[in-house]
Amino acid sequence: MFEMLDAAAAKMNSRVCVGLDPTPDRVPISDIGVFNRSIVDATKDVASAFKLQFAYYEAMGVKGMIILEKTIQYIRKVAPDHVIIGDGKRGDILMTATAYATAMFEVWDVDIATIYAYQGSDTVEPFLQYPGRGVYIVCRTTNPSSRDIQDLIVDGTDGRTRVFDRVADLADRWAGTENVGLVVAATFPDDLRTLRSRHPNPHFLIPGVGAQGGEAEETARAGANEQGGGFVINSSRGIIYASRNPEDFDYEAGRAAELLRDQINDALKPDGLNPQTISLE
Amino acid sequence: MFEMLDAAAAKMNSRVCVGLDPTPDRVPISDIGVFNRSIVDATKDVASAFKLQFAYYEAMGVKGMIILEKTIQYIRKVAPDHVIIGDGKRGDILMTATAYATAMFEVWDVDIATIYAYQGSDTVEPFLQYPGRGVYIVCRTTNPSSRDIQDLIVDGTDGRTRVFDRVADLADRWAGTENVGLVVAATFPDDLRTLRSRHPNPHFLIPGVGAQGGEAEETARAGANEQGGGFVINSSRGIIYASRNPEDFDYEAGRAAELLRDQINDALKPDGLNPQTISLE
């Protein structure tokens, strides 16, 4: 799955994931389905993935779940090479995780689901029964209170480490399958760097740039693997609410995604310098 | 909220929570909505709470979410004193957790939501903005691989402890609010006892009896607080699939719930002995 995502990123020349997280009180037009389709149209040429945060659809009830379903169908139609991430952060015991995997892959038809591994490997296994689909395990999150549990010091096989690093160790168990990645925040760049150096293989979904404070270039350099790939950077509010004017929200969303794409690509250039940026300064 | 749940338990003389976790291939009749309503009718007099595991409804797609919604409306109508637990194990950063709280309490209208605290206090706070509603934080789970993360040894304020105990410490932060409880498995009775002795206040939702192997009497004694309350024991498969015959599944579900109720109540009798049980032996 993650090979497909890296292939999509190469084809689109973009490691941008657009987060479709609409809230009725912030969306500038009344029809959220139309809003989503407009954002998809405006950003698909400068992004390689779309991420739907399930909470925002669930908060709209059954109507929201229908919008979610139709948005995914629309992306399949107009952007068939793009990867769709279902961000529900699910996780449960084996039987229940199996039902969640059914929901994510068979019902909603996302390519990659985000999951919690607090319940251990049982939570992960059912999702791996689907060839060509994958999971991102929530590892290091963007928010300040992520320290409460994730930063607890535990004994590791090679000295003392932290809970989030042990969660990443768990992902390494399935590293050979190419279907288990990690969610790692942009807002703690040192942790992002450490995780990448200790875990060279898993694909990273990196949220937290833009509205949440992460800086795109630094994030791209810290998150990339040795081949300069192995990650996507998600931006939600920074793209979909780039303008909240009904006249130009889609155009501005496209511009914001394009800017993020360029910042990432610039950061990944071999010498870390971008002549274009320099000439503009 | 948990005072209301204990009041319901006292009124019904039952600490049984019936888990409504239907899967189409196991339910003995074709209409899952009718199945749920039959189980509610058959068990409401011997239970004080119902728990809906969201995964099973999501696995049926939009149709499943409509069944979920209608089942909750039905419980409100025929069992208005009963407490409804939405078992979705949600959790995310502040803005997203706010959307999940909206979904759980305003849209689906459950009384208590289960959540993961892997992202720390940010995840919990939005749910506490609803007076008269509550959360159970997932702490110690029933499955073998729960050891992967939950059992990691960390430094505690009073010596070395485990991750799940630190999650329980987190719940104690809001202990005064009476709206934060814990999910603690029946399948690790020593951990259940330890958690109860270290955390006398939070309400416990205890899954894992019956199909998953936990023993009801021992669980009740280990999970009860000093007043002999402060918990409900959930059984899903053990009740709803007590019979898979379309003719008597509801009757047998009622019997299974009644038996579990009696086992729990017997265990909580002051001297731990039950004359009725003894006379039957």
Separation of the first and last Cα atoms of chain A:
40 Å
Radius of gyration of chain A: 18 Å
Query: Which pair of chains forms the biggest interface, and how many residues does each contribute?
Result: A-B, 55 and 55 residues
- CATH A-level architecture of chain A: Alpha-Beta Barrel
In order across it, which strands form the biggest sheet of chain A? 1-2-3-4-5-8-9-10
**Secondary structure: helix percent of chain A:** 40-55%
Strand content of chain A: 15-25%
The CATH topology assignment of chain A is TIM Barrel
Low-confidence stretches of chain A: 272-281
Shape verdict of chain A: globular
- Name of the CATH superfamily of chain A: Aldolase class I
**Helix vs. strand class of chain A:** alpha/beta
Mean model confidence by pLDDT of chain A: 92
How many DSSP H or I helices of chain A?
A: 13
Number of domains of chain A: 1
Largest sheet: number of strands, sense, barrel closure of chain A: 8 strands, parallel, barrel
Order of helices and strands of chain A: HEHEHHEHEHEHEEHEHEHEHHH
Which key phrases capture this entry?
alpha/beta; homodimer; two-stranded antiparallel ribbon; 45% helix; 281 residues; 13 helices
Write the layout of secondary structure elements.
Two copies of one chain form a homodimer.
Chain A: H1 2-12, E1 16-20, H2 32-43, E2 49-53, H3 54-58, H4 61-78, E3 83-90, H5 94-107, E4 112-115, H6 121-124, E5 134-140, H7 147-150, E6 153-156, E7 159-162, H8 163-172, E8 180-184, H9 189-198, E9 204-206, H10 216-223, E10 231-235, H11 237-240, H12 249-268, H13 275-280
Parallel strand pairs in A: 1-2, 1-10, 2-3, 3-4, 4-5, 5-8, 8-9, 9-10
Antiparallel strand pairs in A: 6-7
